[in-house]
Amino acid sequence: MTAPELRPGLILELPNDARALAGRWFLTADVALRIVLAAEITRVPFSELGMALIEGQVLPVLFLSGSATELVWCELPSDAREAEPVLVSGARVLASGRFPAAGAGVSYLGEALAPLELGVLMDAAPDDE
Amino acid sequence: MERRRRLVNGVMDWVTEQARARRTEARVTALDEARLLEQHERVVEASERASSLLGGAGARATQQRSALDGLRDYLRRSGEREKELRQGALPVKEAFERLKIIALNAGLAGARLGEPAGTPLLLVAEEVRALVERGLEATEAHAGRISELEPEREAARAELDQAQQHALTIANELLGAQSAQRQAAEEVAALGKQIQRVTGTDPELARTLTEAAQHAEGLLAALSQLSARAPRGGVFEPLIPLVGELRTALRKLSGGS
Fold it and tell me: Residue B11: inside a domain, yes or no?
C-alpha cells in the first residue's frame, strides 16, 4: 500500500465578501513563497488590483476580499518570462505544511479543498472603467 | 360730628374697661411670670441645640460632597488605567501576529523541504502556530473584558452625577434651614426681652423664684402629712399653729395651688 500523496502549500480562508470565492482553498507551495505582514497598500481605482512597497520592491497586490489580513507573497509561473511576483490580500492563512491530496486539491480537516488558481484570477481581475 | 366722637370714645372706654377687668380676673402671679421666663430659657436652649445640629449636618453634607468628588476622581483615574491597559494589550497582539506569520513561513519552508528533512521544522512550526493562536484568543478575550469596563464606568458616573446633584440640593436646603434657624434664634431673643419688659422680672430672679416655689411645694406636702399624722398632745402640738402660718405663706408663694 503506497503512502498517500502529500502536497505542500497553504490553507486559505476567504470571507463572505469574497462572493464566489468565499470559503477555504488550497494554495500550492509552488506559487506561495511566504507570508508577510499587511503593509500600506495603494489601491488602483475601479480595480481589484493595487500596489505595495515590501522590502524595497513595489509589488502588485490582488485583492480577493475587503478584509485586512496578512499578505501572501506568491510567484506566478510564466512560460514566456520570469515568474511574476504578486501579493495576495484578503485571505486568512489557516495552516501551512503538507496536506493529503484530494483530486486536484487537498483534504484539510476532512474537507476537500480546491486549488486556488491565482493566474486565472489575475487575468480575470475586473478593470471597471 | 360731636355726637359721633362721643359715641366712639364711649366704645373705646368700654373696650378698655373690659380688658382691664379680664386682666384683674386672671390673677397673674410672679410665679407665672417666672415660669414664663423659664419656658423662654428652654426655648432658647432648644434653639441652640437645633443650631448646633444643623451646623453638624452642614459639616457632614460638606464631607459627603468631598467624598463624592473623590469618587469622581477615582472613576476618572480608572478610565485612564483602562485606556493604558487597552493600549498595553496592542503590542502583545502584534507580537503574537508576527509569531504566527513566522510559524506559518516555517511550516511552508518545512513543507518545501519534503520528507524527512522538513518534518521536524513542520512539526515545530505547527506547534508554535497552535500556541500562538491560543495566545491571540486569550489576548482578544482580555481586550473584550477590558472593553466591558467602559459601560459599567459610564453607568457609575451617571449614578455619581445624580448623587452629587442630591448632595448639592441637601447642602442648599441645610443652608436655608440654618438661615431660618438663625432668624428664629433672633426672634426668640427678642421675645425674651419683650417678656422681661412686660413682666419686669429679671431672669436670674425668675430662676431663683421657680426653684423656691418647687422647694415650697415639697415642704408644703411634707408639712401637710406631718400635721395629719402628728398625735394630739404630743411633742409636735406647739408647732401646729406655726405650721399653719408657714403653710399659708408657702401657699401664697406657690401661687395658691
Answer: no
Round the CA-based radius of gyration of chain B to a whole number and report it: 46
pLDDT value at position B237?
65
Binary contact (B101, A70; C-beta < 8 A): yes
On whether both B141 and B164 belong to a single domain, the answer is yes
At B4-39, the pLDDT tens digits run: 788 878 878 877 777 666 655 555 677 777 788 888
Rounded distance between C-alpha atoms, residue B44 and residue B40, angstroms? 6
Nearest CB to A96: which of B98, B111, B114?
B111
| Mode of pairing for the β-strands spanning A84-89 and A57-63 | parallel
Cell 429679671, residue?
Answer: B202
Looking at the predicted structure, is the pLDDT value of residue B226 above 60? Answer: yes
Window 58-87 of A: residues touching B by CB (8 A cutoff) are: 70
Q: Which three cell numbers stand for residue A10?
A: 497553504
Instruction: State the residue range of the domain holding A30.
Output: 6-124
Q: What is the pLDDT of residue A88?
A: 93
Does the global pTM surpass 0.80? no
Choose one of B159, B176, B201: the last residue of a domain.
B201
Tell me which residue in A29, A37, A70 faces B108 most closely, judged by beta carbons.
A29
**pLDDT tens-digit readout, B165-182:** 999 999 889 989 999 999
A33's CB contacts (< 8 A; 6+ apart) are: A73, A74, A75, B108
ipTM, 2 decimals? 0.89
A35 to chain B, any CB pair closer than 8 A? The answer is yes
3-state secondary structure of B113: helix
Q: Is A96 on the interface with B (CB under 8 A)?
A: yes
The residue with cell 512550526 is B125
Rounded-to-integer distance, Cα B122 and Cα B114, Å: 10
Q: Is residue A103 part of a domain?
A: yes
| Among candidate residues B201, B221, B241, the one where a domain is terminated | B201
B257: domain range? 203-257
B6 part of a folded domain: no
pLDDT in tens, B31-71: 777 788 888 888 989 999 999 999 999 899 889 999 999 99
Q: How far is B87 from chain A (nearest CA, A)?
A: 20
Q: Which chain A residues contact residue B132 at CB under 8 A?
A: none
What average pLDDT does this structure show over B75-79?
91
